[in-house]
Amino acid sequence: MEGIFVTTPDGRYVDANPALAHMYGFSSPSDLKAHFNDIASQLYVQPGRRDEYMALMSEFEAVFGFESEIYRKDGSTIWISENSRAAFGPDGKPECYEGTVVDITERKRAQAEIETQRAYFRQLFESSPQGIVLIDPEGRIVDVNTGFEALFGHEAHAVRGKLNRDLVVPKDLAFEAENFNRTVLAGQPIQGETVRRHRLGRLIPVSVIGYPIRVGGHIAGVFYIYTDITQRKEFEEQLAHQAFHDALTGLPNRVLFLERVERAVERANRRDDYRFAVLMVDLDRFKLVNDSLGHQAGDKLLMAAARRMESCVRA
């Protein structure tokens, strides 16, 4: 619905159609014309906006897409876009300005919401401790956050436009990375644990989540979120080691011993040429050392014996 108007250079409405009156909150064009004595002070929210309009008219004799926030009759505000041109009298001076008005309030609200969402996203993107990379459908880096820079040692300005796989994916995991990309670009998020490469070459255990970025019904790119799980992996390895090794000597414990004997028996049953032996070793008078010199001396003796046995057998 377009409003149509004719105004004078000094800021009064000469004519208006019902659509403009309704847009501005008036019951009729006559009410609108009677209300405005000075468009500059009564219509525009932003001071000086009428002066900007007049300056454009003076220079170009027309304005197109002149967007402004204005007051309606009840004091509420809306956004409008004006297209207008000057009409000149016999003396060559503007007699009036005639044009059209469109209510763009909803478009402005949508733009503001998008800008707000972008600001929220940017803040989350930059402040996240995880390494985040945005890549296009060809696998080239569009942007990375500070978490990515810290995790992999690459600065954002140096990696934009480069292939993500060339920067952080170890060569032996290239096929895995390609599978990740194909899956996410097909619209399916992925999550898993893998290894990625730092700029200096060291390998970093990471958890990775990949999300497709959908724009207008198609997938425009992929977000990968990397979390360093080095400490967790080290802790898991420590727990696994403790479960199968003696805490004092570091030698395999009874659980691991029985597991390996069981495997050896199974292998021997499958292969006629496979043989194995079990060696039982005892420390003579070990109890005497504990009783006479104390448990600390006994512990030292056990550790020394363990090191000697390790040096005598294959790992």
What layout of secondary structure does this protein have?
Layout: E1 2-7, E2 13-16, H1 18-23, H2 29-35, H3 39-42, H4 49-60, E3 62-71, E4 77-88, E5 94-103, H5 105-127, E6 131-135, E7 141-144, H6 146-152, H7 156-159, H8 164-168, H9 174-185, E8 190-197, E9 203-215, E10 218-228, H10 230-244, H11 254-270, H12 286-293, H13 295-312
Antiparallel strand pairs: 1-2, 1-5, 3-4, 4-5, 6-7, 6-10, 8-9, 9-10
Helix pairs in contact: 12-13
Give a quick summary of the entry.
Helix content is 44%, strand content 26%. With 315 residues, it is α+β, with helices and mostly antiparallel strands. Strands 2-1-5-4-3 form a 5-stranded antiparallel beta sheet, with helices on both faces. It has a 5-stranded antiparallel beta sheet with strand order 7-6-10-9-8, with helices on both faces.
Summarize this structure as a short list of keywords or feature phrases.
315 residues, alpha+beta, Beta-Lactamase, Alpha-Beta Plaits, 3 domains, five-stranded antiparallel β-sheet, 13 helices, 44% helix, 26% strand
Strand order of the largest sheet: 2-1-5-4-3
CATH architecture of the largest domain: 2-Layer Sandwich
Could you name the CATH topology of the largest domain?
Beta-Lactamase
Distance between the termini: 85 Å
Number of helices: 13
CATH superfamily of the largest domain: PAS domain
DSSP, total strands: 10
Question: What percent strand?
Answer: 25-35%
Q: What is the level 1 CATH name of the largest domain?
A: Alpha Beta
Multimerization status: single chain
Number of domains: 3
Unreliable spans are none
Overall body shape: rod-shaped
Given helix and strand content, the structural type is: alpha+beta
Main β sheet profile: 5 strands, antiparallel
State the helical fraction: 40-55%
Mean model confidence by pLDDT? 91
Q: What's the Cα radius of gyration? A: 39 Å
Order of helices and strands: EEHHHHEEEHEEHHHHEEEHHHH
